[in-house]
Amino acid sequence: MSDIIFLSDVRLSFPHIAEPQKQVNEATGAQRISYNAEFLMPENHPGFQQFMARYGAIALEKWAEHANTVMQMILADRKLRCFGRGEEKVNKKTFKPYDGYAGNVYLTAGRDQAPQMIQADGQPVDPNNTMAYQALARKMYGGCRVNAAIKPWPQVNKHGNGIRCDLIAVQFLRDDVAFGEGAADASGMFGSVAGSPIGTNGMFHPQTASPTMPALPSFLA
Questions:
Q1: pLDDT tens digit string along 103-139?
Q2: Is the per-residue pLDDT at 22 higher than 80?
Q3: Could you tell me where the DSSP H helices lie in 29-86?
Q4: Which residues, in sequence order, are bridge partners of residue 38?
Q5: Nearest-angstrom CA–CA distance, 21 and 151
Q6: What are phi and psi of 30, to 5 degrees?
Q7: DSSP output for 183-208
Q8: CB of 77 within 8 A of CB of 85?
Q9: Cα–Cα dist 166/149, whole Å
């Protein structure tokens, strides 16, 4: 368990938790799925400090006297690492860092298996209970606060030497401002249709006999 790092009260970004992210290799046509997310926090966050310490230990174990050289190579190429400064993650449309990234650091974690979904009482959801799992997973949106467990590991393959993190478990902590613009609301541009029933969703409310404002739907960033 010492290899697993607990990230307390961090912001969730780009979550692919309820449904995996699917990527197709253009050369081979093979499809790869990944349950993944990014976690944002201040650089002095205990979880990030613990990750960096573990990363250093992993590098020393894996690359011995070449550890410093390899770590410099990893730092120079964002594709080889699962961490970085928020300012590195720039929106290609606005040319500015994504919402919530500036002034923070990020950790990316994922794997081909769905992570444990932890309930508010600290108990994991039964992975065989698909409805309960999905209900909790879909509660997590970009910008909300979560607790997470990740496990760093060294990458050594044809793509190069790097550092990655498995996503072990996630727990919804609390709401926060959603990232992105959210869903557009054009309801103010519309009026009532002549002859339509009075009320919400075409239903008549005899107690008030007047239109009732529908509750705005919640939406994810």
A1: 999 999 999 999 999 999 999 999 899 999 999 999 9
A2: yes
A3: 46-63, 67-76
A4: 13, 108
A5: 19
A6: -70, 140
A7: ----GGG--PPTTPPSSGGG---TTT
A8: no
A9: 9
Q: What is the pLDDT of residue 219?
A: 29
Q: How far apart are CA 78 and CA 100, in angstroms?
A: 19
Candidates 142, 121, 143; CA nearest to 132 is 121
Tell me 90's DSSP state: B
Edge-to-edge strands, sheet with 160-174: 83-85, 105-111, 31-41, 5-24, 145-157, 160-174, 116-118
Extract the tokens encoding 9. Answer: 């009260």
Task: Catalogue all structural domains in the chain, each as residue range(s) with its CATH number.
Answer: 5-174 (2.40.50.140)
pLDDT tens for residues 185-212? 565 667 667 765 554 444 333 333 333 3
| Token digits of residue 30 | 């093979």
Stated pTM of the model: 0.79
